[in-house]
Specification:
With 410 residues, the protein is of the alpha/beta class. The chain has 12 helices and 10 strands. The radius of gyration is 22 Å and the shape is globular.
Amino acid sequence: MKLYSHIFLLSLFFAAISCSQTKKLETGADRLIPEYLSVLKNKRIGLVTNSTGVLSNGTPLYKELLNNGLKVTPIFAPEHGFGINVSAGNDVDNSTIAQDSIKVYSLYGTIKKPTKEMLKNVDVLIYDIQDLGTRFYTYISTLYYVLQAAAENNIPVYVLDRPDPLNGTTIDGPVLKDGQKSFVGIAPLPVQYGMTPGELALYFSGEGLLGNNLKAAITVVKMKNWSRKSYFDNYYNKWTKTSPNIPDFETALIYPGTCFMEGTNISEGRGTHKPFLTIGAPFINSQDLINKLKEIGTEGIALNPIQFTPVSIPGMSENPKYKSEKCYGISIKISDRNNFKSVEFGIKLVYALRELYPQKFKMNDYFDKLTGDVSVRNEIMEGTKPNKIIRSWGKDLEKFNEIRKKYLLY
């Protein structure tokens, strides 16, 4: 009996070791110096990053490069700035990391693509930013323009791969249509595209999306021990904010759907400390909205009535919708991520608001940029049921998925 007990305990021990090993994720940033140092020696490096660009031990990537004798000539920062402390939509100024005398060029303002002048002292570009797996999250637009500039100037690009935090399998939402290209919709992708930054880079270049027959010289420094089905918190205990209004992982999960509120006259919760999980307006009756959403059918979330007053929060939202006005609406809590479909919930939410408040609820052109398809707004205005709208994406998603498969690395 003791022998069987020992065997059982040993099996548990080795299973625990195996489990811990599968959980140990190595990002592209973790692998860069151990595996590519010799290639980067004596190169002038342009680093595209922000404060998400860190190694698993917490060391900023630019510091790791400097500590290993490499030369970082400029840093290029996306929306929200290098320190992720500038509110959404606000231009970011050029700056300097004084202690290391590194110029930081902003790629969010009048200039969104590195210029020839910015690249004159660059031999190689390295891209390392944690994105959100969502088409209108602008870090992937920065990646697109960096690849385009690199191809135009014959500069090789190393993309240090990171997980799609929402998992690498879910694809959902309308695929961006011709005529809707913008900085929140840079390429024909669905709202959730289920790809890593490295896979996206290969897709942008491989599908000829950079324009003028441009092809970028891309090296993807792959991750180790990442599973496509996994979520961010399968590997990390703590969320590092990817932008000022994505303060935790639950917000990241809801964002692809409730971000549609940005294209409406409904508050998406900016001006509170629960953005995208807090939805409302002065004219909403909370219980009516909850009842309508339950009638339509929602899964994987709990909805509760809420009152809130948006206020100016420096670095998050200085001038939110309905600033200083009392709003009524819903607080959202994700209860079952495996049954929750964020994009579909977003469409149901917009439909419910239109049904309840046809005279007061408004959508604008920015809504079309977020969905990437003007027909979505038209169908909602015409009273088309949400499930029919959702089914209309099916063929486009199938076509996209066939293309997407060519670029999957894991």
